[in-house]
Amino acid sequence: MRLTIYTDYTLRVMMFLAVKHLSGELSRIDEIADAYAISRSHLTKIVQELGHSGMVETLRGRAGGMRLTRSPRQISIGEIVRLAEKDFAVVACHASDAAGVCAIQPACNLNRALKRATDAFLHELDRTTLEEAVTTPDAAAALLGIDTGAGTGLVSVARSRGSAGRAARQAGPRS
């Protein structure tokens, strides 16, 4: 099973917000787009959906931004994935609107096994919180260029890397 890019980006937004959660600071779409080298337009739709879901509070205006509405400890990765993924059919013939796609569909029992596998996958994601997904928030903050003011030394690395670090991430892997 492969999650969509939309879900990948949704998880990234939520992890970014989790890193900034303790500071209480608002985050902006441009800040997240720069940190991950992702298109701002992709993130706009994601942030809008997260706002409608109630997981993220969005504030408009010049001093606006977004933040988590709950502690990262109270948000499961499974909850985020279910919000972002619209279809968990592992194969096309198991989609809810797939009548007549396969000749043996009425006699096929594979659907039950794949449903159990998907349920097990989601159950495991439900057991993992957003807080646990970011095992070392100071290191994540440094890698994302977030100033947490934690004074661990890791944040100063991010400052010294500055735009050079973001440029390297945008360029992709080296040969």
What does this structure look like?
- This protein has 175 residues and is mostly helical.
- 54% of the residues lie in helices and 5% in strands.
- The chain contains eight helices and two strands, in the order αααββααααα.
- The protein has a two-stranded antiparallel sheet with strand order 1-2.
- Residues 151-175 have low confidence and may be disordered.
**What is the H/E order?**
HHHEEHHHHH
* Discrete helix count: 8
Which regions have little confidence, pLDDT < 50, spanning 5+ residues? Answer: 151-175
- Mean pLDDT equals 82
Major β-sheet, in short?
2 strands, antiparallel
Beta-strand content estimate: under 5%
Give a brief description.
The chain is mostly helical. Helix content is 54%, strand content 5%.
Characteristic key phrases:
about 180 residues, disordered C terminus, two-stranded antiparallel ribbon, elongated, 2 strands, mainly alpha
What secondary-structure arrangement, pairings included, does this model have?
Layout: H1 5-21, H2 29-36, H3 40-53, E1 56-59, E2 65-68, H4 77-84, H5 110-126, H6 130-133, H7 137-144, H8 154-171
Antiparallel strand pairs: 1-2
Helix pairs in contact: 1-3, 1-4, 1-7, 2-3, 4-5, 7-8
